Amino acid sequence: MAQHFLLSARAKSLSLASVFTMKDADAEMTFRKIRWHETEGEPVCPHCGGADAYDCRRLKGAPRFRCRACGKDFSITSGTLFASHKLPLRCYLAAIAIFCNEVKGKSALALSRDLDISYKCAFVLLHKLREAMAAELKGRVVGGEGKIAEVDGGYFGGYVKPANYRENRRDRRLLRNQTGKRRVVVVVRERGGNTIPAVFKSEASAMNFLRSRVAPGTILNADEAGSWEELHKRFEVRRINHEEAYSMDGASTNWAEEFFSRMRRAEIGHHHHIAGAYLLRYAQEASWREDNRRKANGEQVSHVAGLAMANKPSVDFTGYWQRHIRTEERA
Ligand SMILES: [Zn+2]
């Protein structure tokens, strides 16, 4: 049997040990090369775009540059997702490495213990990394003429705990006994290609999303749920009845199920509760992990660091404080 990718030497190109033995100057240079890759690490002013800046380090050693054109100061992370960072750069690299190495996800509590940072700091940092991963999904379209994609939905959140005494228990299947917070993550995944998730109140509300994100001519695969009937109007759709088989005559939703398997394991094993405003972010993380699962971990770390450095400051978080956000029904 072929060796599992994660067991192969090819999967391991960066160790946490090597990140922790990095000198400050090395960590700085790593981030400079990721941020200003066109100039091979030479600083470019984020205010005016000027390429002539000199070292203007703070007294305590924090790296800063001053632009000769506009006279403004900037740091390696100014104007990026890590703007106004408070931890040493090495710590961010370590956090990204830990996050990438955990293939099902990483809990903020565990990261706070790994790096001896507060839970809140770890929570915000991990969400910024998810935001970076999500940047890759913006405007993505899957499929195309003759290509095959799969669509499926998975429900998250709105758990109602049964009461202790039997006489106090209510029928949780009835709408009036539910919280109304349950949402469905709808995913469309091209076979051998990329994944796009989105969050809705019901599978039937996902039609506009699917119409705009699946290229015409794509052959879709879906299960027997009535909510997918609408898809037949626009696409050739193969249906698979899971009561009969998981795969039959080429029809299956196993690629989509694989995504949900990863996300469900992240929910059960790491986060315990994935719901509300952040549900989409967890779905985007799972989708990034699926699409990049065959990359070596060193490559994954530079990829995520690159996305974070190319991203504007966080839309979900400013500094350490949470803005009002609404990620539902947003893709
Ligand atoms: Zn400037």
Brief synopsis:
By secondary structure, the chain is an alpha+beta fold. Helix content is 32%, strand content 15%. Strand 9 (247-248) and strand 10 form a beta hairpin.
Tag the structure with descriptive keywords.
alpha+beta; 5-stranded mixed β-sheet; 15% strand; binds zinc ion
Describe the structure.
- The protein has helices at residues 16-20, 24-35, 89-101, 108-115, 119-135, 207-213, 254-271, 279-291, 297-310; strands at residues 53-55, 65-67, 73-74, 148-156, 183-190, 195-200, 219-223, 236-240, 247-248, 251-252, 317-318, 321-322.
- By secondary structure, it is α+β, with helices and mostly antiparallel strands.
- A 5-stranded mixed β-sheet has the order 6-5-4-7-8, with helices on both faces. It has a 3-stranded antiparallel β-sheet with strand order 1-2-3, with no helix packed on it.
- β11 (317-318) and β12 (321-322) form a beta hairpin.
- The longest helix has 18 residues, at 254-271.
- It is globular and about 65 Å long.
- The two termini are 38 Å apart.
- It binds zinc ion.
- Residues 45, 47-48, 50, 67, 69-70, 72 line the site of zinc ion (ZN).
- The site of zinc ion (ZN) has 8 residues, from loops.
